[in-house]
Amino acid sequence: MTPPRRQVLGALAAGxxxxxxxxxxxxxxxxxxxxxxxxEPLLSPWRTLPGGFIAxxxxxxxxxxxxxxxMFVKWLAPGAVALRGFDLLVLDAGAGRLWRADTxxxxxxxxxxxxxxxGVALALGPDGSAxxxxxxxxxxxxxxxxxxxxxxxxxxxxxxxxxxxxxADGGLTVLLGDGMGAQWLAQRNGSTLAPPVLPADADGRRxxxxxxxxxxxASGSGPERLWVLDRLAGAVHQVQRDGLVLQTLGxxxxxxxxxxxxxxxxxxxxVDRDGQALVCLQAGMPARHLALPALGVRQIGALAVDDRTxxxxxxxxxxxxxxxxxxxxxx
Length: 331
Hints:
Elements: H1 5-18, E1 26-27, E2 43-49, E3 51-54, E4 72-74, E5 78-84, E6 87-92, E7 97-102, E8 107-110, E9 121-124, E10 130-134, E11 139-143, E12 149-154, E13 162-168, E14 173-178, E15 183-188, E16 212-216, E17 225-230, E18 235-239, E19 245-249, E20 259-262, E21 268-272, E22 277-281, E23 288-290, H2 292-295, E24 300-306, E25 309-314, E26 319-325
Parallel strand pairs: 3-8
Antiparallel strand pairs: 1-23, 2-26, 3-4, 5-6, 6-7, 7-8, 9-10, 10-11, 11-12, 13-14, 14-15, 16-17, 17-18, 18-19, 20-21, 21-22, 22-23, 24-25, 25-26
């Protein structure tokens, strides 16, 4: 019999408090010696999820899945991921399925009808909705916690190359990145798409690409912060919603960036070199190159951050590795 979620959470928290987990190794480059990440480790291993037990359908429409009692599903090649609380979306490219997993109860439930081809991007809303960008069909889908399709809308011709999806304004606004046009569009509360935003610096120089989007949550010191991945420039940009570039990080430190995620402390985690490297960028700090063996992964297919948890999808080992994020040094 599966124990109640509250009991499992209490036991897990007690176990984490009793065991001191080491931080991941950092280096100045491939093969460099390990150095400490600070007074509190930048990353501490938490859980490794190779899959989960299939959960039976919810009793009522709209309810989350119940604890799993079915067979164990092993992920083959996890690609895109999204994380919010204990909810984890995993696109298993190897099996051609999109799964919603509960990282605490170790259960999974399938989302039928969701696209699974390359280029699909994912996001989780505050209500648990699963947002899916389907670039081939040029549409965005929203599925409820019970896997029902709740909403779909066409992107149209204003977005030549949709490559990125992010939720802003507490989940009320959908941001869609266009890699070919180096722009993004916003849609709020199911309304029509707003005019494109073309990011540029104060002198009017446009950035070379919008290949990824990530929104850092609002904090006591300010509102949400939008970050843009620019592959051609080998950089990430913090950008206002009107398109003004506020700062740029990563030049000279990134070679072939492919994905990014940001936390509430202003740290940007970037997948580099075709999944062979993870780089942590922060304004005023040297770049930290994180060693993959210490992270427990062989090749990073995707990543996601929520609160103080980092999820890394390992497409070679068929698993998602979760790390706890440490607080930065207050000095």
